Amino acid sequence: MKVEFYKNKDGKCPVQDGIKDLANKSKRKVLKFLERIEDDDDNKLGRFFRSQNALPIKGYKGLFEFRPFPCRIFFTFKGGACWLLHLIVKKNNGRTPKKELKKANKIKEIIK
Prior knowledge:
CATH superfamily: RelE-like
CATH class: Alpha Beta
Helix content: 25-40%
CATH topology: YaeB-like fold
Distance between the termini: 17 Å
Order of helices and strands: EHHHEEEEH
CATH architecture: 2-Layer Sandwich
Structural class: alpha+beta
Oligomer: single chain
């Protein structure tokens, strides 16, 4: 499956920039996750996503998050590709901030 990165109106890719800034351990987890998605031709990713803490977000149809500590990467699927939408690096508590969820959902609507 192809992996696409959302680019904002300035042509910048916040997810790629965020990945570059991660600590090595988190960066390796993210890159392994992306590699596994790209290598999947049979679309049998359900078990893999669950094993990697990549789950649908309740209340946001079609929006998912991958949770390599300490960051969150929000993604969706469109046209046979996995679109990486938004990355947050630090959470203040055990919950993902609603502001960040709304931002990721807005980006998802832009690419749909």
